[in-house]
Amino acid sequence: MTDTAPLIISRQGAVATLRFNRPASMNALDLPAALALRDAVRAIAQDSGVRAVLLQGSGRAFVAGGDLAALRADPVQAAQDLLEPLNETLLLLQALDAPVIAQVHGAAAGAGLSLMLMCDFVLAAEGTKFNLAYINLGTSCDVGASWALPRLVGLRQALEIALLSETFAADDALRLGLVNRVLPAAELDAAARAFAERIAAGPTVAYGHMRRLMRASLDRDLAAQLAAEAQSFDACARTADLREGIEAFFAKRAPQFKGE
Fold it and tell me: Measured between alpha carbons, how far is 170 from 110 in angstroms, rounded to an integer?
């Protein structure tokens, strides 16, 4: 990866880091960035050695939305071109066993906020500003916001965030349950890295089943959810990590999970 690539991909141990790299535009998502993200997540989906995914942004912001220059030139075609790879990316991310962590600073707006909402964990810097923003442009949302936002904050609060499109601060995001932690900006890099490494050391297969169970629960009745839980537990019961977890419990030591 070169310094001019729209997405910088790195790997440290079991943590894959994807860093948006269009700082001059506050990492606004254009087609090359969307394609690079899709291709990176495709590769991660085929790599069982990745046990946590960390999303970051270069420069002053996480992601400040979609690229409005392309949308201005041809709104219909630009939207179609951009959403196809982004939607595939979201489906691939949801199917991973590896949890996805967003490290957010500066601004998360429009498609950037939507992408953040679809992550499993969000660590935000103090001073970060959030705005769903779509209504301010005269359009509805994309990148999964209409699916994720009501699940996180409830329908009425989701409608307020979406329809008023007012900017809100990191403390508000924490209060609403949109982020997990708010940290001083100077501590964010180290905290996000430590958090990702902690996740990467966990029982990855169980993480995958747990995150899919939680996300699907609002779309199933109780009987269907109980059946899905039983199926997932059966799959986890066949893993080396479950055996390690049980042995560690009886030995009164910390488990050493391998994601297998």
Answer: 16
What average pLDDT does this structure show over 110-138?
97
Q: How many CA atoms lie within 13 A of 23 on its CB side?
A: 9
Provide the token pair at 14: 């079991």
pLDDT-derived band at 3, boundaries 50, 70, 90:
confident
Contact yes or no for 126/184 (Cβ under 8 A): yes
> Rounded to whole angstroms, how far apart are CA atoms 140 and 138?
7
Second-level CATH architecture of 7-200? Alpha-Beta Complex (3.90)
b or e along 95-107 (b: 16 or more beta carbons within 10 Å of the residue's beta carbon)?
A: ebbbbbbbbbbbb
- Per-residue pLDDT band at 172 (split at 50, 70, 90): very high
| Statement: the pTM of the whole predicted model exceeds 0.85 | yes
Domain boundary assignment for the chain:
7-200, 204-251
Cβ count within 10 A of residue 226: 11
